[in-house]
Design goal:
- GO terms for molecular function: methylisocitrate lyase activity.
- InterPro entries: ICL/PEPM, Isocitrate_lyase_ph_CS, Pyrv/PenolPyrv_kinase-like_dom, Pyrv_kinase-like_dom_sf.
- Pfam families: PEP_mutase.
- Belongs to the isocitrate lyase/PEP mutase superfamily.
- By secondary structure, this protein is an alpha/beta fold.
- The protein folds into 2 domains: 236 residues, Alpha-Beta Barrel (TIM Barrel), CATH 3.20.20; 32 residues, no CATH class.
- It has an 8-stranded parallel β-barrel, surrounded by 8 helices.
- Strand 4, helix 6 and strand 5 form a beta-alpha-beta unit.
- Helix 4 packs parallel to helix 5 and helix 5 packs across helix 6.
- The longest helix has 18 residues.
């Protein structure tokens, strides 16, 4: 069976294909995406920070937070590649190299590194701070060198947040230089128009370009078809699960607080008791594995 990295690279080699990655932030949202047949997942850094730490995406998550979360998601189904946020690499060149090695060991198929300062913020917030280009190139070079050192593959995605602060030409130049060093995919964060998106894809070709589809952010809305037509080869949806979960749980919390009951929330998942919810997370496969190994705990079901 091809490895997750090999599968991701094969997808990127198909110029007629766009890789659609729903953003997941925990085991349940990852299972839901997997059960709906997505061929690649994206672990959102903002979602990881909020779900693990209960804090905003302001550079507070550590390598350990992100690696452990990515490893759990990546290994739910090894047939499906995971692309994960790696922020700034969490330090200088040595730390970026360690991050790369740790992500490889965790089973991550691809990850993106950015050029914000270590105390970063979400790419769709204002007043981001950008490191000098030589610092950014050292991050990319460290990731490439670490990949070579361990002799195992991972797709390196060069992300730049320089568009807002330095302008289009400087941002594209940074991505081109990152590609020369060995980055596999280009990620121009904070694209502000569809015309700019098309120009970037054309300038960076034949390198695959990633679109960060954050509805409500600074980037205009693209459908998958529109993104593919523009020239993107990967589209990620960081808020894919965050928005729906926030709205649904907020409504349930409000109902329970105000009425002393959660009947409407329960009605929305009618027929989904504990057993059915566990099925979403692999109960059937776990039972079958135990029986095949000679276990008897689940012979009569649950």
């Amino acid at each position: 069976m091809a490895s997750p990295v090999q599968k991701l690279r094969a997808m990127l080699e198909d110029k007629d294909k766009i890789v659609v990655c729903p953003g997941v932030f925990d085991g349940l949202t990852a299972r839901i995406a997997l059960n709906n047949g997505f061929e690649c997942l994206y672990m959102t850094g903002a979602g990881t920070t909020m779900s693990r730490l209960g804090m905003p995406d302001l550079g507070v998550a550590t390598l350990n937070d992100m690696r452990d979360h990515a490893g759990m998601i990546a290994n739910l189904d090894r047939r499906v590649p995971l692309i994960a946020d790696a922020d700034t690499g969490y330090g200088g060149a040595l730390m970026v190299g360690r991050t790369t090695e740790q992500y490889i060991q965790a089973g991550v198929a691809g990850f993106h590194l950015e050029d914000q300062v270590v105390n970063k913020r979400c790419g769709h917030l204002k007043n981001k701070e950008i490191v000098d280009e030589d610092v950014y190139m050292s991050r990319i070079r460290a990731a490439v060198n670490a990949r070579t050192k361990v002799g195992q593959d991972i797709v390196i995605i060069a992300r730049t947040d320089a568009l807002q602060m330095l302008g289009y030409e400087a941002a594209i130049s940074r991505l081109k230089n990152a590609i020369k060093i060995g980055a596999d995919v280009a990620f121009l964060e904070g694209i502000i128009s569809k015309e700019q998106a098309k120009e970037a894809c054309e300038e960076l070709a034949p390198t695959p370009v990633l679109l960060n589809m954050v509805d409500g952010g600074v980037t205009p809305h693209f459908t998958v078809a529109e993104a593919k037509e523009t020239g993107f080869q990967i589209i990620i949806y960081p808020a894919f699960a965050l928005g729906p979960v926030y709205r649904a749980v907020t409504a349930a919390a409000k109902e329970l607080k105000e009425t002393g009951d959660n009947a409407n929330a329960v009605a929305d998942i009618s027929g989904m008791g504990p057993r059915e919810l566990f099925m979403v997370c692999g109960l059937k496969e776990a039972m079958e594995f135990d029986i095949a190994a000679g276990g008897s705990a689940y012979t009569n079901g649950v």
